[in-house]
Structures are given as structure tokens and as C-alpha cells.
Amino acid sequence: MLLAGKNAIVYGAAGQVGTALSTAFARAGARVHLAGRTARTLEDLAERLRGDGGQAEPSVVDALDETAVDAHTDAVAATWGSVDICVSVIDIADAQGTPLAEMSLEDFERPVRIATRSTFLTARAAARHMVRRRSGVILTFGGDGGGEPMRDYSIGGLQVALNAVDFLRRQLAAELGSYGIRVLGLHTGGVVEGLPDDFGARQEVTDMIVGKTMLGRAATFADVGNVAVFAASDLAASMTATSLNITCGAVAD
């Protein structure tokens, strides 16, 4: 198993992306520390992963709470001996469909604040333990890696938030590389199977995402999990400060 013996912390573990990552990590042999704000959903996920033969430890943690994140990470390291993989995929509560010129400041700022704060706090907490062991992998998620604006649909502060996280990823990689810590991004350009059925612009957004791809389909949650396992494993030991393109050809590197 590619991640046997590794401890992986997933913040936002019970969400759609978090579930995909947690499931893939557990299947690859990692002990997955499921962090989120709702105990019941975390327990349900932990039970499912254990039922499939995986190792899972649920904990109620708010990824925006500095004290809570630090305490949880310290507890994982103290109890299980290491923090080897860390990723935050909490919901950043973005407002979409309203043109920027008509959007409130609060709606614009919210995703930027949530994305940068959660990524910084969780990465910092993990890095402090990874530095001592001179190894570890920090992953970020979201966007298409290209930084191109949306021309036909307004996504508010989301693109700004994702590009801010992307630069944070590169800066973390630059500062932590000498300690053997790798920092990688996972870019999908959008996972359409995650769009809610009651989302008014669902078909419009699906057509926009799929229409940009070369493969004629968008990435799936299973794709995200599989690539994350590779990125976190020793097979990707030479990779850092870069993003893994899971856009099905929507972005040509």
C-alpha cells in the first residue's frame, strides 16, 4: 500500500472532496484523521472506512480556529507519532452567479478569508511537526491552475481565493523544501458531479466546465482521490511547488 504507516489529516473530511480524499487515503493504507465540525457525519464516515478495512479517527475541529487546529495536530503527533499528510478542503462558502459589480463586500471577502485562513492554519500546524521529522506532504485543492478569469459566469471571490491559496502553496514549498516537506496542489477545473441538483445554473456550469476539456468529461471525485494518493506517496518524492493537473485537458501545461 502506497501510504501504509502514514498519518493523514483531512480537514473538511465529511464533505464531498474530503470524503473522496479520506476514502482514497484509507484504501492506500494511511491512518486518516477525519476533522470537521459535525460529529455525526465524521463518525459515519469513520465507520464506513473501518468497515472497508481502513483506519480512521474522527475529531470535531474547526479549521478556522487557530487554537483548535494546533491542539488537534499536536494530539495526532503525540498519539500516533507523526503528521505525514495534511490537506484542508473545508467549504469556503462562495457566492456564485452575482456579478462582481453587484456583489456585497461580505460575499466577496468570505471565500478569500476562509480559504486562506484555513489553509494557513492547517499547513502551519502540520509543518511544525513535519519539520522535526524532515518529511511530510501538504496538499491544497481547487481551481484549474491557470488563473484565467471566468468570462461567461460570475464566481465572485472564489477565483481570487483559489489563486491566493495557490500562491500560498508555492511559498510554503519554497520555505519548507529544505526540511524535506513537499507542498502540492490538486487542480480539477471543477467536479460537476458535486453540483447540487437544486443549483439553478447546474447545466450551465456543467456545460462550461466540460466544454473546456479535451477528454469530453470533467474530473470525478475518484480521480481526485487517486491523484492525491500518488501526490502524497513516495512515488512523487521529486515533486513539490507544483500542481497536478486533473482538468481532463481543460488546461494545457
TrEMBL record:
Record CDD domains: SDR_c
Superkingdom per UniProt: Bacteria
UniProt cross-references to InterPro entries, sorted A to Z: NAD(P)-bd_dom_sf (IPR036291), SDR_fam (IPR002347)
Keyword Transmembrane among record annotations: no
Name of the protein described by the UniProt record: NAD(P)-dependent dehydrogenase (Short-subunit alcohol dehydrogenase family)
Phylogenetic placement of the source organism: Bacteria, Bacillati, Actinomycetota, Actinomycetes, Pseudonocardiales
Gene Ontology MF: a single term: oxidoreductase activity
Gene3D superfamilies: NAD(P)-binding Rossmann-like Domain
SUPFAM superfamilies: NAD(P)-binding Rossmann-fold domains
Keywords: Oxidoreductase
Family: Belongs to the short-chain dehydrogenases/reductases (SDR) family.
Organism, as annotated: Actinophytocola oryzae
Pfam families: adh_short_C2 (PF13561)
